[in-house]
Write a structure and sequence with these properties.
It is a single chain. This protein is an alpha+beta fold. It folds into 2 domains: 311 residues, no CATH class; 97 residues, Glutaredoxin (3-Layer(aba) Sandwich). Helix content is 64%, strand content 7%. It contains 17 helices and 8 strands. It has a 4-stranded mixed β-sheet with strand order 4-3-7-8, with helices on one face. Strands 1-2 form a two-stranded antiparallel sheet. Helix 15 links the parallel strand 3 and strand 4. Helix 2 packs antiparallel against helix 3 and helix 4 runs antiparallel to helix 6. It starts with a helix and ends in a 5-residue tail after the last helix.
Length: 443
């Protein structure tokens, strides 16, 4: 027991005596402060217009205008800097010979990896207190913060950091040097951006691989949506990455055994992702219910017993597809029990080189139990009655809709600049200096 406590203390001290976390804190403080000041300035300009014309106030949501951009700084730090801090934790043990000593003392590779992961996870939670302080400062100045959406945003960034840490530990176990490990983890994180761009462009094999992007762990929660599938896929990815890191960390294990374990882990992750992709249930955390129909409409749609199929003959770059997907299909997939959406490859009625022969471009076909109907509309006012009639579902009684009020807030000057640019860096510097004095020789 005392041996385990000593190892925990050494692991934490090794992290705190390094310069990497201090540099990360300094960069994060400056980035968060600058982004927060810029977001408040833009939001204040929009609020001035809203105060003159109250109809514009509905478009002023502090979650989108203040919180998401401010926490975006944490996303950049987690993607570009946090992996190097995690790799350093393994690289130091390997270079100093501490890894072989721990293995010789009976510590299993899995316990070594888990100890490092938990220390780094705790450190990442502390790092997130920097953008959290910006949200608290916004509330202190009279700004509005919706609790569920903000909690989901914090959870998303925390989970994204855990995924990056687990992959960085895996890369540190695979690479023989810190430079090789850094290239591996940057290939994974930056490759996620390529998958995102391919998925946004639509079509091709990149769009099919887009759900494997690491940023998919964060993006729905940035939009205020908590998918049930995320609660299954990303913990599974973290656990498999840590298990593989422990497998590759042991120097005496045969390479063939490591390779077989890696293939089994990759197969397991793919199966979990494919299974979770079929789970459409999610929770709308936003205050304006942007991902949801009215409650009465959702209850009626949830009672459709059979399989509803929607075939869309629109190109992925067509604005009508974007409106239909965001305003109708995305909401239907959350509530209709048996829904299948198929986007048929089609050519616009007027292509880049001239008119096209595809006269059915733009059609949206709805099929249910041998019956079908067609519409070209992207409006819920026309599509929902069509679905009610096609599925023989009684239309719900229309109730009063509560409009989102918006929360305009005008601030004369950017707040909190001394906190982000002076006090936080000085606090981090004092803690780092105290650790260096207390333990001058890093372990």
């Amino acid at each position: 027991m005392r041996f385990d406590v000593t190892l925990w203390r050494l692991e934490l001290r090794q992290f705190l005596t390094g310069r990497a976390w201090f540099g990360l804190t300094l960069i994060l403080s400056v980035l968060v402060g600058s982004t927060f000041a810029q977001a408040v300035g833009i939001f204040s300009e929009g609020s001035r217009s809203a105060l003159a014309s109250p109809d514009l106030a509905q478009g002023l949501n502090p979650y989108d205008g203040i919180l998401v951009p401010t926490f975006g700084s944490a996303y950049l730090v987690a993607t570009l800097l946090l992996p190097f801090v995690a790799i350093r934790q393994i690289g130091q043990d390997r270079e100093s010979g501490a890894l072989k000593l721990l293995l010789g003392l009976g510590c299993s590779p899995l316990r070594i990896v888990l100890r490092k992961f938990l220390v780094l996870a705790l450190a990442w939670a502390v790092f997130l207190l920097v953008p959290l302080s910006a949200a608290l400062l916004w509330m202190r100045l009279g700004g509005h913060v919706h609790g569920p959406a903000f909690a989901g945003l914090f959870l998303g960034h925390f989970c994204y950091g855990l995924v990056v840490i687990a992959l960085a530990l895996l890369a540190g176990s695979l690479g023989r040097s810190a430079a090789t490990a850094s290239l591996l983890v940057l290939a994974a994180t930056l490759g996620s951006w390529v998958l995102d761009f391919g998925g946004a462009a639509g079509g091709g094999w990149l769009s099919r691989l887009a759900p494997l992007s690491l940023t998919q762990a964060l993006r729905p929660l940035e939009r205020g949506l908590l998918p049930l599938g995320h609660l299954l896929t990303w913990p599974a990815l973290v656990m498999v990455a840590l298990a593989l890191a422990a497998c590759w960390l042991h120097p005496g294990r045969p390479i063939v055994r490591k390779g077989i374990s890696s293939l089994a882990g990759v197969a397991l992750v793919l199966l979990v992702f494919l299974g979770a992709a079929r789970i459409q249930h999610s929770w709308d955390l936003t205050e304006d219910r942007r991902h949801s129909f009215p409650i009465a409409v959702e209850r009626a749609l949830a009672g459709i017993p059979g399989h509803l199929e929607i075939e869309v003959r629109l190109d992925a770059e067509d604005p009508r597809w974007m409106d239909l997907d965001r305003g109708i299909l995305h909401r239907l997939q959350r509530v209709v029990p048996h829904l299948r959406v198929v986007r048929t490859i089609a050519t616009a009625a007027f292509g880049r080189t001239g008119p096209s022969s595809d006269d059915r471009y733009g059609e949206v076909i709805y099929r249910y139990q041998g019956r079908e109907d067609m519409s070209r509309s992207t409006s819920s006012e026309e599509i929902l009655p069509l679905i009610y009639t096609l599925t023989e579902t009684p239309p719900p009684a229309e109730g009063p809709e509560i409009a989102y009020p918006g929360y305009p807030r005008v601030l004369a000057s950017p707040p909190g600049m001394l906190w982000f640019r002076l006090f936080l860096p000085l606090l981090a510097l004092a803690l780092w200096a105290w650790q260096r004095i207390y333990n001058p020789k890093p372990i």
